[in-house]
Each structure stands twice: as structure tokens, then as C-alpha cells.
Amino acid sequence: MTATQTPLPDLRQELAAATADADRYRRDLSQAQHDLSVALDTEDYRAADRANAKVADLQPRLLLAEASKAALADVLKRSEAQAAAGRAATVEAARRQAAEASLGEAMAAEDACRERAEQLFAEATAGLEAVRQALTAARQAEREGTAARHLQAEARAAMTGAASGAVVEANYVSSRIQRDALLTAILRNIRTP
Fold first, then answer.
1. What distance, in Å, lies between the first and last C-alpha atoms of the chain?
2. Are residues 104 and 59 in the same domain?
3. Is residue 193 part of a domain?
4. pTM for the structure as a whole
5. Does any domain span residue 2?
6. Residue 161 — left, alpha, or beta (φ > 0 → left; ψ -120 to 50 → alpha)?
7. In this model, does residue 191 exceed pLDDT 70?
8. 1 is a domain residue
């Protein structure tokens, strides 16, 4: 229970007591006024004086009790409103704090994801460069294979004394690269938008 809630039970008790006092004074005043009326009707002036004194005594007491009742009701209403506003402010502050914590966690998660994505992209780019270099090396090996075929044709021609014939270029990997758009793009270092 918070400090703003602690006095509320006491205010309710005081309001109940003030209401009971006002009700009692109202009944007593009504009875005194009735007694005064009866005394005046019967011309019992002594009883009328006593009843009039009692009415005079009870009227300010009733006014004070009614004023206390109204004041306590107002204080209780304001106190409950302040307590509700305090609870609402506490709930709002907790909600805001949770939202800020959630935002911070989400921002940190995004940062970690961005860093991981950058790292993976760098690895992929390095991997693509390694693939490009490997494809270039494979094509170079293929050209060297074609040169070896020329040497073979010349050696056969030298052995037989005949002219060397046409040499078919080595096509170990070039044909496969040409059929694969991705490998072609990597080899040519083509960047997609």
C-alpha cells in the first residue's frame, strides 16, 4: 500500500462517522422541532422554551456535521483521484520503461544482425572472389591444355613426317561455365544491382 493510499480507510471511517452524526443531529433536530410545535400548540411555554433551546443548540451542530460530511466526501474524492492518478502514472512509467528496454533490446539485436550480415557478406564476397580466381585458374589450365595439344600435334607430325593437323581447343571447363549464368557472372565479375 502506498503513502497516498494509507489515509483512505481513515477518511472513509471519518466520513461514515460524520454522516452518522449528521443523521443523528437531523433526527434530534426534527424531534426538537416537533416538540416545539406540540408545546406551542398546547401553550406549554416552558416546554416550548426547552424545545427552542434544543433546536438552537442542534441547528449549528447539524450544519457543522453536514459541512464536515461534505468536506470529508470532497477530500476522499480528491484523495482517491490523486491515488488513481499516482497508480496510473506508476503503470505508465513501468510501461514506458518496459518499452524503452524492449526498444534497446531490439536495437541491440538489429546491430548484432547487421554486424553478422556484414561479416557474412564479406565472407561471401571473399568466397566469390576465390571462386572467380579458381575459374580463371581453371580456364588458364584449359589454355595450357590446348597448348599441350598443339605440342602433341607437332610431336606426332615430327614422328610421322606429316604436317600437323588442326588442333581442337581444350574445353574442360569453358563449356560448363558458358552454360551456367552464375559462373559466367562470377567469372566476368559482374555485379548485380
1. 63
2. yes
3. no
4. 0.47
5. no
6. left
7. no
8. no
